[in-house]
Amino acid sequence: MNIRLMAISTVAAVAGTVAFAGAAAARDQIRIVGSSTVYPFTTAVAEQFGKSGSGKTPVVESTGTGGGMKLFCAGVGEAHPDLTNASRAMKKSEFEDCQKNGVKDIVEIKVGIDGLTIAQSKAGPAIKLTMEQVFLALAEQVPDKDGKLVANPYKTWSDIASSLPNVKIEVLGPPPTSGTRDSFHELFLEVGAKKVATLKDMQKADAKGFEKLWKSIRKDGAYVEAGENDNVIVQKLEGNKNAFGVFGYSFLEENAAKLRGVAIDGVEPTYDNIASGKYEGSRPLFVYVKKQHVGVVPGIDKFVAEYVSSKAMSKDGYLARKGLVALPKSEADKIAATAKGMQALAAVDVK
Amino acid sequence: MTDIAALTGDGPIRHRQGDAAAARVRRRYRAEARFKAYGIAALVVTTVFLVVLLADILVKGMPAFTQHSVTLSVPVPAEGFGDRSVSAIRGADYFPITRDALKAAIPGIESRSGERTLTRLLSTGAPDVLRDRLVANPSLIGTTVQVPLLLSDDADLYFKGVGTRIDSRAARGTATPSGTTGEITIESTAGDFGADLATVRKAIAQQVLRLTAEADRAQSSGATDAVARVAALREEIATLRTRLDDPKSQEELDSKAPSLLVAINDGLVKITKLSDTAVSGDVLLPLSSADPAGAGAWRVVTYLTPESNRKVTDQDVAFLERFKDLGAVHRDFNWLFFSSGDSREPELAGIRGALVGTALTLLVTLALCVPIGVLAAVYLEEFASKNNLTALIEVNINNLAAVPSIVFGLLGLAVFLNFFALPRSAPLVGGLVLALLVLPTIIIAARAALKAVPPSIKEAALGVGASHQQAVFHHVLPLAMPGIMTGTIIGMAHALGETAPLLMIGMIAFIVDVPAGLTDAATVLPVQIYLWSDLPEVAFQAKTAATIIVLLLFLFVMNGMAIWLRKKFERRW
């Protein structure tokens, strides 16, 4: 090995790296970040957009809702993403962060609904649950007969209600880092906690304690954190007929051959029930657009138009085939109009 | 000491210590045998784990290397291609062409829903082959072309064995269908459906028993909601009983039981209502005529997996089986998997983008790591004076090798993206970050290799008048090269498997276009595995496993190269 050769190659490698730094200007490709829940849908739209020849296929990153918001709100310009996916609405703090960094005009597009489902293997005993039972089965602390909070004593489902089967409580769900877990707390445990009669007083008297109650899941093994990957939960349910899993509706639909959705408060998690809002465990999904980038990065307006088009977002659209539950027609039309007109989000509309 | 003496078996000593010593020796031999057994057991367990893991991946992944398509004669209309230039042919609408070819293959499908089911069996990328052929040879326009059309992921999975078992038996009576399409009834002169009716009734009887047991349990439990529940259950039981008691009743079939069909007059009818001698149902494949069919000329077909337990409907199965009977379905090697980028349609998704991205990223890593790492090692080992500063640097290099990889990602985000304003998701940045990750490994390996060269070689060079630099670069470094290369390749293999540091710099992304340069958006193989494993479509699971196989092959080749290099150039002293 020649020393000169080595020195030269080192210098060349470093110089090349620095030279590339200058070449990062002028972006002609849309960049999207955000929620992994919305990722399967936005990528489908991105692919269609690319195929239609309207421009380069956008790059869609899966960073999680919170991480996506941070990147999205970091500023205006080439280095910052144009759109962000979110499995919940933008928070006030995030909106203010955006404003502070010069991201003034943000267009909110509600793209559809995602049902959060509790599912089980078809080989297991079919059961129906109420929100209250879900809370009692999974909360870290539950009220005893006198309404005093105790560590969750329920071991089997029949401990909670005699109509339920005598099977050990075992629920596989997302870890705390997941957006799905946040939704599970808000859509199931909070609603369930509010329905427990003995907690009514506490809800009024000690709002903070009440919130802590439904935000804590038991850690004694009845709730198993199965990782971010919903397919892992699906596989585990196939192997264990007494276990239950918590994941998005698209996974239930895709695995309908092996899994059964558990009816909550008598409503089955079906496409129609989620679309009509009858099924309570559902949440809207959003895409946020940086209006200041429209016209600067080519194709954003066309991409948004593709997203809200009826061939994508309607009940027969390709997004529905990917497991997204479509919005009612009237609402979808309204949203399509807002999106095409690029009406920016006003501060008063952000909660 | 006495033990050693005992082992040598020296007569007098042994004699002196007697039985106690002999027992001790036996105990030590036993201990050694036990230890060996532990070692073998550990090896067996490891091997079993490894074999199970590899077998699992292979079994899951192999189906992804083949793909089914249906070869049809596609009449290409003369119109619709503009001036027949390349761009006009590329931009033409191929959907109606493939749809008409499908409809011609299975004549008589008129309803819109039937048509939609039929077209849904094809992938959205099905016309790509036809398009390429027409572009290559525009004279085919206006003729009929034999083209393989790619099937959708669900249809593909059906042929790969996730479908249903199909039974069929010849019927005894003469059957008379009431029509050829739509909803029809078929009457048989013999009780051809008696057995099926009995099966359905048996299922109902079992259901009654189950419900009765549940009602009894609910009643005895005395729960608050039990009364209403018991009432509802009893009512359901009563309805079922009336159905059982009425011998003439027609039973309705639902999607939770195996599907029953009648194949008659070249058509297929799905039974929805069943009685002893007559059935009614929907026509899935149109009948050629409504003529009566004699005994043996028509068959009762059963799809054993209930419709609700599979992804393909009865109508899908009917179409796919018809294509199979026509001999049009082929299983081919899945070239698309290696030639296309990512896609949200499993049958179109490929790893070319990730492969190219991996190559570009590793190239950047290699170009930075080898010169910097080797020179740093040479300086630290041969030239640097041993003082507190070099000691500190040494400790830090060793520590860096143990830092969690996500930290390097954060560093990359802060330095390369935010400060140097390099583009996100670029292999350049990925390579830089991975270079930082691998550098300590390479420096440590290179130093060890340099240290392993006997000092006599350097001293001999110095003794004949070489300068220190000449001694190192002409004699020590060439001899240390095999060790350095092995270390480098193992470091590269480490970089090849990383995803965590790439998260922060935006390489965990959906990227369709195959990257053409160091600053194009790209992703790498392990990231592709991670992304696909999280998608709901079942077909992506096989793709995930197949990508793992490719990544493992990559690693085997790299490690094999490291071993080969070591064997070829290694010098022993």
**Architecture per CATH nomenclature, i.e. the level-2 architecture of the largest domain in chain A:** 3-Layer(aba) Sandwich
CATH superfamily of the largest domain in chain B: MetI-like
Low-confidence stretches of chain A: 20-25
Query: What is the CA-based Rg of chain B, rounded?
Result: 36 Å
Q: What fraction strand of chain B?
A: 5-15%
Count of runs of 4 or more consecutive helical residues of chain B: 20
How large is the radius of gyration of chain A? Answer: 24 Å
Reading off the top of the CATH hierarchy, the class of the largest domain in chain A is best stated as Alpha Beta
Summarize the structure in words.
The complex is a heterodimer of chains A (351) and B (573). In chain A, 41% of the residues lie in helices and 17% in strands. Chain A has 351 residues and is α/β, with parallel strands linked by helices. Chain A folds into two domains: 27-113 and 284-349, D-Maltodextrin-Binding Protein, domain 2, CATH 3.40.190.10; 115-282, 3-Layer(aba) Sandwich (D-Maltodextrin-Binding Protein, domain 2), CATH 3.40.190.10. In chain A, the strands form three sheets. In chain A, strands 1, 2, 3, 4, 8, 9, 10, 11 and 13 form a nine-stranded mixed sheet that branches. A two-stranded parallel ribbon of chain A has the order 5-12. In chain A, strands 6-7 form a two-stranded antiparallel sheet. Chain B contains 20 helices and twelve strands. Chain B has helices spanning 2-8, 11-61, 86-91, 95-105, 112-120, 128-136, 153-162, 194-221, 226-245, 314-325, 336-339, 352-383, 388-400, 405-419, 427-452, 455-463, 468-496, 500-504, 525-533, 539-569, and strands at residues 66-75, 144-150, 166-170, 175-177, 183-188, 251-252, 259-264, 267-274, 278-285, 299-303, 329-333, 509-510. The two termini of chain B are 35 Å apart. The interface between A and B is large, with 55 and 55 residues. Strand 2 (59-61) of chain A pairs antiparallel with strand 12 (509-510) of chain B.
